[in-house]
């Protein structure tokens, strides 16, 4: 099949994670469109609002020269970002809970301000549409791997880069995550410098990134290609069954499609944003954006 980005299957860490958790959840997040609005749907929660706001502040810094990054206090940048998720738009049902989550965000950014480490050093930006790194994972299968990397630190001593992924959640166990391995593939294919380091930075507790071992690139590419082909087959067959019948990943979207969600607006991608005010679900804190 000739490669065609308009008909290609685009996969990312977010969509792959969705599929591995539950194919039905993948369907709701990546395929389904509301019959009434014709738009995709997404579920907002306080944890996602916190992560979205902190990531937005740090992303702005990545576009600035090193001498300009801390000229404006980070809490001021947070105030601007927070306006987009304040109140019900961020899943906050009362002012007390919103204050608690915003305070956490402020503390994370204050820690970065006091101990900027690599954030104060030279960085690399991948030149692409909306900073989205992408390459053909398989031209034969018409599959593109894409993603948005949080930070690429430039290491002049070795003319290489250091991938840093910001974590705003409280979960520290990333042992089986495909996130950094996928970013490793993207950074290796989408810019010319070799990747010499990869790290998670747990902003709520750590003053510096926690380095992780470099993966085997060929092995990661084989595994991700295999998963992507399974996703493509599921889309062709329109088969997205939940292995458990229903689970914590897909149940919230079942409720939304059955009218139990409260619409609170649209996100930057035009999707309808819902909350479930009468129910509590353990929503992934880091999957605030699906690419």
Task: Give the structure's gist in a few sentences.
The chain has 291 residues and is α/β, with parallel strands linked by helices. Helix content is 35%, strand content 17%. Helix 3 (46-62) packs across helix 4 (74-82).
Q: Distance between the terminal alpha carbons, to the nearest Å? A: 23 Å
Summarize the biggest pleated sheet: 4 strands, mixed
Q: Numbering strands along the chain, what is their spatial order in the largest sheet?
A: 5-6-7-8
CA-based gyration radius: 19 Å
Helix content range? 25-40%
What's the number of helices? 8
Quick one: overall form? Answer: globular
Content of β-strand: 15-25%
- How many beta-strand segments? 10
Q: Helix and strand string, N-terminal first?
A: EHHEHHHEEEEHEEHHEE
Mean pLDDT: 92
Structural category: alpha/beta
In the predicted model, the low-confidence regions spanning at least 5 consecutive residues are: 286-291
């Amino acid at each position: 099949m000739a490669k065609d980005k308009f008909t290609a299957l685009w996969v990312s860490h977010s969509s792959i994670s969705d599929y591995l958790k539950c194919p039905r959840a993948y369907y709701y997040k990546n395929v389904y469109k509301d019959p009434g609005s014709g738009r995709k749907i997404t579920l907002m929660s306080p944890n996602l609002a916190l992560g979205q706001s902190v990531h937005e502040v740090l992303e702005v810094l990545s576009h600035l020269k090193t001498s300009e990054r801390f000229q404006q206090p980070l809490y001021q940048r947070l105030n601007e970002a927070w306006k987009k998720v304040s109140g019900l738009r961020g899943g906050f049902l009362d002012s007390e809970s919103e204050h608690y989550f915003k305070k956490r965000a402020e503390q994370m950014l204050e820690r970065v301000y006091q101990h900027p480490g690599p954030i104060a050093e030279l960085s690399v930006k991948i030149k692409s549409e909306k900073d989205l790194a992408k390459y053909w994972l398989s031209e034969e299968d018409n599959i593109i791997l894409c993603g948005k990397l949080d930070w690429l630190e430039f290491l002049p001593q070795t003319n290489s880069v250091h991938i840093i992924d910001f974590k705003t959640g409280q979960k520290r166990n990333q042992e089986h995550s495909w996130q950094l391995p996928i970013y490793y593939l993207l950074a290796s294919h989408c810019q010319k410098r070799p990747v010499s380091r990869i790290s998670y930075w747990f902003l709520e507790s750590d003053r510096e990134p926690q380095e992780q071992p470099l993966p085997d690139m060929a092995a990661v590419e084989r595994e991700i290609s295999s998963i992507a082909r399974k996703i493509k087959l599921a889309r062709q067959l329109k088969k997205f069954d939940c292995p458990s019948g229903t689970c914590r990943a897909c149940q919230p979207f079942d409720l939304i499609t059955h009218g139990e969600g409260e619409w609170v607006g649209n996100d930057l991608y035009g999707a309808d944003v819902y909350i479930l005010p009468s129910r509590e679900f353990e929503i992934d804190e880091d999957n605030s954006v699906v690419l």
